[in-house]
Design goal:
Shape: globular
Number of domains: 2
Strand content: 35-45%
CATH topology of the largest domain: Maltoporin, Chain A
Oligomer: single chain
């Protein structure tokens, strides 16, 4: 770090990281947020190999499924800052390269795997490339292993400015870009990479400190760089297959009364109709998937703008009443791998006593 001039700072760093695999990396067997996952021990001696992707299109890489080993990383970071009584700002950029990245990839088994078991699940289907499916998850069975190298580039920026004795403003910006070094595509890291994230806040404070109020805008950009793991993940891309649609059509949808018997009056066969549209199962499958065997429901995570207001009132020297109104416009939004939408408009009040 250096300070070439009053108020200015320059900084740079190089660091090396190491992460040993933990119990989740080594021993997961069962349903996780990303899908049904098996450990290397579970498929030992079965000719299992690592798939080239996390989805149904994965082919065998020829790499045997082995217990995950450690990841290592090198990070280069540089930044500049300026600070004065009325204005301060910091900006930094970094490049973090992760070697032997622990990722989720599709499990590939030799032909004839249908009917065998993985944990407490029986394999019910196998694709032409060797990916396998179990009833617990709609996407192919996954394995967690070291697979390739990934690079994450980032930009972080903050700014605070005092406009008047009562009014101040600030911003926070974060931008990330992740890629697999072999393909240039998004790496299969659980949780994915969020879109650009930007906060703007304006604060009004009474000179005596008696009260303050702070509106906040939170703007998040669209994220369309989704990995094959993201696209298959039920929390993000939510890929559906013809088999998934068929199972729901003849089971859940029929039970709820959304499917009616066809002209023969007998439920559970090819002429059953979706009551709302009059479509048969085949027509629904073709409308949703086209000519493909599977397709994600979402191919991107939409951006959003959320508005909040918070503030406080001093009640004497030791007491304060705080309030916050969240998602004031009742925006409907979600982030990558959330699996559910954010809460709607809300209001909270807190009382603080200092002793």
């Amino acid at each position: 770090m250096a300070a070439p001039k009053e108020g200015w700072t320059l900084r740079a760093s190089v660091s090396r990281g190491f992460r040993a695999p933990h119990i989740t990396d080594l021993g997961t067997l069962g349903l996780t947020g990303s899908g049904y996952t098996v450990s290397a021990d579970e498929v030992e001696g079965r000719g299992a190999t690592v798939g080239s992707a996390a989805g149904a299109t994965a082919i065998s890489t020829g790499l045997p499924v082995e217990p995950a080993g450690p990841e290592t990383s090198y990070q280069f970071e540089g930044g500049v800052g300026y600070h004065s009584r009325r204005f301060s700002t910091d900006a930094s950029v970094f490049v973090n390269t992760v070697y032997d990245n622990i990722a989720y990839q599709a499990l590939i088994l030799p032909p004839g795997a249908v009917g065998s078991t993985l944990g407490d699940q029986t394999i019910t289907a196998q694709g032409p490339t060797g990916v396998v499916y179990v009833p617990a998850a709609a996407n192919p069975v996954l394995v967690r292993t070291n697979f390739g190298d990934a690079r994450i580039r980032g930009l972080e920026h903050t700014m605070d400015v005092r406009l008047t004795s009562r009014l101040s403003a600030g911003t926070v910006l974060t931008v990330l870009h992740a890629e697999d070094l072999a393909t240039g595509l998004a790496p299969n890291i659980e949780g994915g990479t969020p879109g650009p994230d930007f906060y703007v806040k304006v604060r009004y404070a009474h000179p005596t400190g008696r009260y303050w109020v702070e509106p906040i805008l939170h703007l998040v950009g669209r994220q369309d760089r989704l990995s094959t793991l993201d696209l298959e993940d039920r929390r993000t891309g939510a890929t559906r297959t013809r088999s998934n649609i068929k199972n729901f059509f003849y089971n859940g949808a029929t039970v709820h009364g959304w499917v009616t018997p066809g002209s023969d009056g007998v439920p559970g066969n090819a002429d059953d109709r979706l009551a709302l549209t009059g479509e048969t199962l085949a027509q629904v499958q073709n409308r949703v998937l086209g000519t493909a065997d599977s397709a994600p429901l979402f191919t991107e995570v939409a951006g959003y703008l959320a508005v909040a207001v918070r503030g406080g009132f001093r009640l004497g020297r030791r007491h304060e009443l705080l309030f916050e109104a969240e998602n004031v416009t009742d925006e409907n939004y979600r982030g990558i791998a959330w699996g559910m939408d954010a809460a709607g408009a809300g209001f909270s009040v807190a009382y603080v006593a200092r002793f």
